[in-house]
Every structure is written in structure tokens, then in C-alpha cells.
Description:
By secondary structure, this protein is mostly helical. It has 7 helices and no strands. It has a domain at 38-112: MazG-like (Helix Hairpins, Orthogonal Bundle), CATH 1.10.287. 66% of the residues lie in helices and 0% in strands.
Amino acid sequence: xxxxxxxxxxxxxxxxxxxxxxxxxxxxxxxxxxxxxxxxxxxxxxxxxxxxxxxxxxxxxxxxxxxxxxxxxxxxxxxxxxxxxxxxxxxxxxxxxxxxxxxxxxxxxxxxxxxxxxxxxxxxxxxxxxxxx
Length: 133
Ligand SMILES: [Mg+2]
């Protein structure tokens, strides 16, 4: 990672590989790999998803919009989302999954299941589309 990226990391300048490397460096320094078996990472991931969703519990969409306007709340949500991403990357590393390949493979698969002409504006599951296998 270059100095300019350290000063202002963003999605436009940081690769998935750099994120994986950063989180692996963080855990290696703490000797935490021994605790990061896939099951434990999965449990931790679900726990962090719960912490993320706790911010939205019992709030309407409008209340969430207002909630997110408060910089303190937004920062807390950002941190919970970062925990989710952190654990997802560690799980991918442990399972030797290339995140970008998996992401685009799944997006291609979803595009076949949810063709625009059948799915646009609908929240239906793909199995409800008659002409999709
Ligand atoms: Mg958390």
C-alpha cells in the first residue's frame, strides 16, 4: 500500500487483496490465526451482522435515514460493517476463496436467475419466474 493510500484509503484506490493483506497482518501480529477456524469465523461473522442490524432494529426507513445523518451513528454503523467485511475476508482467506472471482461468478449466476425482463421492479424469488430454470 502506498503512502497516499494510507492517508486516504478509499474503494477507488484499495484492492481486495490489500484489504485481505491488512486484516491478515493485523491478526498475525496478535497470533489470532489459531482462533480463526472457518466455523468460528462464521459464528463471529453472524455476531457482527447482528451488531450491525442492532442499529436498525425497530426503526422505520425514515428513522434509519435520520439516524444515519448523525455522524456518531454513521461511524458506529461503518465500524460494524467493517467488522463484517473483516471477518468475511478472513473467512475467504481460510477457505482459499478468491473474493472477486466468487463475487462476479455469483453476480453472473444471479443475472441468469433474475433476468431484467422478469425481475425488474419485483422482489419475487427467481423460482416464481416461469421461464427460468
Ligand atoms: Mg462489532
